[in-house]
Records
---
Amino acid sequence: MNQADITKLVSKLRIKVPPTHRRLRNPLGPEGRLNKLRKTVTGLIKYERIELNYNRADEARQYAERLISEAISHGDCHKPTMEIADFWLLEKELVHKLFKVLVPRFENSSSAFTKMYKAPKPAYARAIEKTILELKGNPYPSLTTRQPNNKLLLQNVLLDAAKYDYRQTKYAEIAEKMSTPEETKNPDS
Amino acid sequence: MIPRVCNVLNALKNFEKHVLQMFKYPPREFALAYDYDKPVQKTTKKFSLNDLIGDGFLLAVPKFRRTVEKRWKRKFGSPEYIWKMLVPKTNIIVCNKCGHYHENGRLCGNCYKIVEEETKEIQAKIQEKLGTNKPIENDVIVLYDGDQLPEKPQEFWQGKRVIEMKKERPKWFSKNLLQKTTQAPSDSKDVKPTDLA
Ligand SMILES: [Zn+2]
C-alpha cells in the first residue's frame, strides 16, 4: 500500500484528550480563553511546577504536551513549529528552553511529558478542585515518595512500643531464671 | 398550596352571597315564619388596627403553614442535589511518608505543604540566578551545602546551570535523586530484614 502513515502526520499525545475542548468562560470569548491558556503554558514551561484550577490545568496540559511533541518531532529548523512556539510562549527566552532543554530531556521518553496531581482539599468545605501540574524531570523534590517502611507511621510506633514491652518482660524472666538456680545450687555444693 | 386555594374559594362564595342578596335571592316565599324579638341595637365600634397596636409596629409574619416536606427539605437538603447531612468518608488513607490522613488519590496535605515550600524556594533561587531576558539554554541542577557532585563524565556537566541552595539538604529530600539507581546490584541472595525496630 502506497499510503502515508497517518499516525506520523499528527503527533499522538500520551495523555487522554477529551473529544471537545472546554469552554473556559471569559469576557473576551474564545480569544480570552486562548490568552489564559497561553499564560498557563508559559508558566508551566518557565517554572516546571505550578498549582492551578483543575479545568485550566487539564486544558493547558494538552497544549503543552502538543507543543513539546511538535518540537521533538520537527526540531527548531521547522518554520511552522517555530511559529507555534512563538505563539504559545509569551516570554521569548522560553523558546530557547523548549528546544535546547526540554527536547533533549524528553527525546527518548516513552510516556507523557507532564504529570498532574490532585492537590489536597479541606474536608467538608466548598473548595475548587486544585491540581499541581509539573514537567517530568524537574529539579524539585518529588511529590510522591514511596517509603512503605516508615518508622513514624502510627501503626509502626505502636508495634515498636509493643515489641519493646514484650522484650523487657522476657529479659526480666530470663534474669529471674538465671538468678534462682544459682541460689538453689549454691547450698548443694 | 391548598390553604391559598381555600382562601380564594371562600372569598368567591362571600362575593356570590352578597351579589345574590342584592337581587332579593333567595325569594321570601321559602322563608320560615316565627315570632321574633327585635334585638337591641348595639353600638358597635368600627374595627381599627390602631386599637391593637397603638404606638408599636407590625412585622411581616408567615401567613400560611409550611408543609412537612418543605420544612424537611430546608433542614436536610435533597440527596440528589445538595445533601446537608454529614456523611462518613470511606476513602481516607494513611500517608506512607508522614502518617497523616488524606483522601485516596490525592496528595497528602502535610507532605505537600513541606514540598511546596521547598519548591518555591528553589524556583525563586533559579529565577534570581537566571536574571531576565536571557535565553535559557541549559538544564538546572540543584545542590545543597555539603553535597558531593555525582560522578559523571565531563560532558554531562558541560553547560549545566548549577543552583546552590545555601543550606543543608532537607532530610526528606533524598540525595539519590541525581543518580540513576540507588543501589548497586548485588550477587548475594540473603535477604536482610530491615526496619525491625
Ligand atoms: Zn504525608
---
Amino acid sequence: MPRDTAELFGKPTPRIDGVAKVTGAARYASDEPVANPAFAWLVTSAIARGRVGGLRLDSAKAVPGVIDILTHDNVGALAQPPAQMDGGPTTTTLETDQIWHDGQIIAIVVAESFEAAREAANRVEVDYVAEPPSATFDSPGVQVEPHKTTEDSKDPAKGDAAAALAAAEVKIDARYSTPTQHHNPIELFTTTCVWDGPHLTIYEGSQAMWGLKANVAKQLGMDPAMVRTISRFVGGAFGSRGGTTSRTAWIAIAAKRLGRPVKLVATRDQGFTIATYRAETRQHLALGASRDGKLTAFVHEGWEVTSRPSGYNVAGVDTTARMYACPNIATAVHVVHADRNTPGFMRAPPETPYMFALESGMDELAHALNMDPIELRRVNDTKIDPVSGKPFSSRSLMACFDQAAAKFGWSGRNPKPGSMRDGDWLIGWGCATATYPTNIGPAAARLAVTPEGKVTVQLAAHEIGTGAYTVVAITAARSLGLKVDDTTVMLGDSSLPPVTVAGGSNNAATTANVVYKACEEVRRRLAEAATADPASPLHGADAASLQLKGGTLMGPTGASEPFKAALSRVTGGVLEVHAENAPQGSKPGAVAGLYEGKSAMVRGTGRENVTTFAFGAHFVEVRVHERTREIRTPRVVSAFSAGTIVNPMTAHSQFMGGALWGLSAALFEATEIDRKTARYVNHNLADYLIPVNADVPDIQVLVVPEEDDQVNPLGIKGIGEIGIVGMNAAVANAVFHATGTRIRDLPIRAESLL
Amino acid sequence: MRPFTYERAGDLSEASRLGANTGQGQTDAPVQFLAGGTTLVDLMKLDVLRPTRVVDISPLGADLAGVALTSRGLHLGALATMSKVAEHPDVRRAYPAIAESLSLAASDQLRNMASLGGNVLQRTRCPYYRDPSWEACNKRRPGSGCTAIQGYNHNHAVLGVDENCIAQYPGDLGVVLAAFDAEVELSGPSGARLLAFTSLHRPADGEPHLETNLRPGEVITGFNVPAGAWTRRSLYLKVRDRSSYEFALASAAVGLDMDGETVRQARIGLGGVAYRPWRSPEAEAVLVGKPLDEATAKAATDAAFAGAVTHGGNDFKPELGRRTLVRALLQAQSLPVSEAS
Ligand SMILES: Cc1cc2nc3c(=O)[nH]c(=O)nc-3n(C[C@H](O)[C@H](O)[C@H](O)COP(=O)(O)OP(=O)(O)OC[C@H]3O[C@@H](n4cnc5c(N)ncnc54)[C@H](O)[C@@H]3O)c2cc1C
C-alpha cells in the first residue's frame, strides 16, 4: 500500500532541469550535435487537390551546394505512410503523386547549408494538375458522414431526449462554432537522422518515443530494434508530436541516400500543414429544464472537419453528456471530409471545442431561467456519471465554483447584462466549468541507487515542458527518503524502458506510479534483508511496516538504520530494479504492447466501476470598449481540484498556461483558410494571433484539495489539459454579461460586437 | 533568400551611386536600401523581394538620425529609430500623435531596429503578397490578378482601392504624417528635393507593384512636419484585437485646433483601412467651424468613409473605422491642452 501521499507530494519544487533550460544547456532535438550534417528543406504544394504533374528541378540543382532532391519519382516506393493513432488511414506525401491538401510535402531538397537548401527549394518549379478543392464546412464537394463508433465508444444516449425537449418548461436551442487552430509550439518541427551501419538514430521532439520508433521502423520496413529515437527536451507539443507524421521517414531516407546525417528544421508556416491541428467544429446544443433549473433534456451534436481519407474526430459529446445530471440524452457526431491535412490531438482535444457549446448553453439557460449560473450548475451537479450510471471516483466541481467565486467577488455581480461599467468600458463577469478525464497508462522504469543515496531513474517518458523530469525526481527521492538534488532523471530516449504516449494528461500519474513501484521494490528488498539480519536494529520487525525516510530505513517504533547500511546489506555496489506498471483496468497485454510501441491508456470513462474526471471552475472579467468594442480581460480566477498535486509549482504553471490558452482560444486564435483554394493564409505568428504579455491578465489559480485513491494508487489526476477547458465559454459568457450580445462563434473579436 | 551582394554606403552620394538602380517595382527591383532591415530581410527570406544588391545605408545614421523642434516645425531624420522618436520629449509634448503612432507600433525589439525611412516604406501585410506560392498578386507579379478580392480579405483596405489591388497600407506613422502636412526630404543622383508626404505613396492606379514616387537612387533623408495649432491637441488611436504588437484593424490620427467648443481646424488621418497613408479632407471640412459633439463627429466620420468599398471579410471595417474616428475626435477634444502655444 502506498504511503500517505501528502508525505510524498505537495512541496513546491523548482524544476531540476530549469537551469539547463534557461542557460541553453538543455538539448532540444535539433540542438543535438551531429557530425557533418546536410540540411533539408521541404518543398510543399501550393494547391490543395490534384496531382504533381511534374517537377522542374534544373534551376534548383544548379544552386551551389545542392546535393540531392527527393521526390515521388526517386524515393516514393521506399516508405509507407505512418500509422495513425486512431488506426485509420491518412494522406500520403511522396509515396504517390497525389496532392491531398495545401502545404503537403512534395519534394525535399538536401544541401550543404540551410541557406542553399532554402534557395534551391524556392527554385523548384512544380507543374500541378489541379482539381477544385473543398475547403471546409459548406464548401461544394465535402462529404459528410457519421463518425465511426465502436462498442467502447458509443455516442452517449439515454431516455427520450426529443420528447423531453419538446415538453421542457424552459429550453435553449443554439448553434455554436469553433475555428481551426494550430498548436504552434515554439520549438519548430524538426527531424535529424543519423545512420550508423544498419542502425538509425532519429532526433525529433516527440510525445511517444517508442511509438515513433516502431512507426518509422514499420514505414521503412526495418526491425524496430535498429531504430532509436531521442527527444530529451521538447519545446512544447500540446498533442502536435503525439503521432508520427510523414517527414520523419523521408529524412531517414535522405540520410541513407547520402550516407551522412540530415537535419530538417521546417519553417513556422510549414508547421501548419506538415503536422496536425485542431479542426474547426460546428455544434448544435439543445437543453431542456424544469423551472427549478433541473435538466430534463440534453441534445448535443457535432460536426468536425477532417481530411479525405481519415475519419479522425474528437467527439467531445462523450464528456459533455456526463457533465450534469440529466435523464434524457441524445448525441451525435459527424465528420466532414474536405481537402485538408489530417487533424490531430490538441490540448484537451474533445473538451476544448465541445465544452464551449455546453458551457455557453448553460449560461444561456441560466439567463432564460433568471438563475445565477453557479446555482444552475449546483442544481445539476451529480455524483453519478449520467451516461454510464457509475459513480464519479471524486467530483469537487461545486467546491471549485464556490472557492473561485468567493475569491473573484462574484456576489458583487449585477446579473443584468450591460449593467456594469467603468468609464467607457463595459464590464462583464462570466464563469464556466472545466473538466478533463483522468487517464493513466502502462509504463516501465529502471531505477538504480547507490549506498551514498544517489539515485538514477530512467524511462522513455516525455518532457514536453510540463516538468516531467521533476515529477520523476520528486517521486523517486521522496519515496526512497533521499534528496531530489541527488536524483538524476533520464527521459526521452527509446533505449530506456517504454512509457505510453504523453497524451490525455496521463504523464504524471503514469510515471509517478511506475517509479513509485520501483521504489517500493527497493524498499521491500532492503526491508526484507534488514529484518532478517540479526545485526540490524530492525531485526525481527515486520518488513512490510518499514519505511524509507530521511535517509534511513525506519520501523514503526522509531528504530532505524542509515540508508547506506541497509543498501550495503543487499549489494556491494548499486541496486538496480526494473519496474513495470499496468494500471488497474488495463487491457491484457498493455505492458507487452509498450515494447512494440503501442500506447495504451486506461481512460476516465473506460473503467469498470467508476468514472474518473478532474473538475474546475473559471471566472473571468472582460472589458469591452463601448464604441470600438475591443475586448480586454483584466483578471481571471480559476480553481481546480485534481487529486494529489505532485509539484504545486509546475502544477500552477500548467493551470495558468491552460487558462491563458483558453483566453487565447476565446479571443484570438483562428487559422484562416482561403475558401476557394482551401489554403491557409495566416500561417505565421504575426497573423495567427496569440496573446502577448500585455494581454495576459492577473490569473489567480486556486487548488482545491482532493483525495482520490480510486484513480490510481497515488491519487494523481492529470492537470495538463483541464486548464484550457471551459475558459472559451467563460469569456463568451462574460462578453454577454458586458454587452447583452451572445457570441456563439469563436474567436470573439471587436468586429463580432459592432 | 537568393544570393545578393552587400554594400555599405558611407555617405549620401555613395548611396545614390550604389543605389542608382533601385527600381520601384516589388520583386523586380534589383537594388534595395537596407536600414533596420525589419521589412526588407523578412521579405527576402519569404522570397518576395529578390534584390541582387543590398545597399546598407545605416552608416548615414551618423548624420541623419536627428530630431529637432523649431518654430517652423519638427524635423525627423530618416535613420532615427522608431524607439528614439517615440520616446523623444519634444515629440511627445508637441506632436503626441507622432510619438503614439510609433510607440503603439510593432514591438520594442522592432522599434529599436527600425528606422523612420524604412517605416514609411514598409510593405503591405496582405498574405497573398507575402507568400509567392500564390500565383495571382498584382503587386508582386504585375498583371497576374488579385487573389484577395475574392479570398481572405479580413484586414484589407476599404478606402482608395481599385479592382486591381485592395492591399492595406499597414504603417502607423505614415497616417500621422499624411494628416499633418508633412514633407519628405529626398536626396538622389540629381540632387535633393522635397515631396509632400501624401505624394510619396502612389494612389491605386492599376499598377500596384509601383508603390511610391521615389526615383531610382533616391534616399529619404528626413521628414519636416510643419508647426500648427493642432499638433499639441493630437493623438493616435489604434484599435486592434490584441493589446499590443498588432497592426491596426482601424486607427485614427487626429489633430484639433479648438476655439472653445468650436473646431477652428482639424487634421484627420486614417489607418488600417486604406490603400495608402490616408488623409481625410472630407472629414476635416465637416468639422471646421462647428462645435465638436457626437453628432458632428459622426457626420465627419460618415464623410470619411463615404467612398468605402468592402469585399466580404472586411465588411466590418467602415463601421469600425467610423467608431474609431468618433472616439478619437472626442478623446482629442477632451485632452488637457492649453490652446496657447
Ligand atoms: C512583426 C512585425 C510587426 C510590425 N508591426 C507594426 C505596427 O504595428 N505598426 C507599424 O507601423 N509597423 C509595424 N511593423 C513594421 C515595421 O515598423 C517596419 O518593418 C520598420 O519600420 C521598417 O523599418 P526598417 O528600418 O527596418 O526598414 P528596412 O526593412 O530596412 O527597409 C524597408 C524598405 O524601405 C527602404 N528604405 C529604408 N530606408 C530607406 C531610406 N532612408 N530611403 C529610401 N528607402 C529606404 C528599403 O529599401 C526597403 O525597401 C511591424 C513589423 C514586423 C516585422
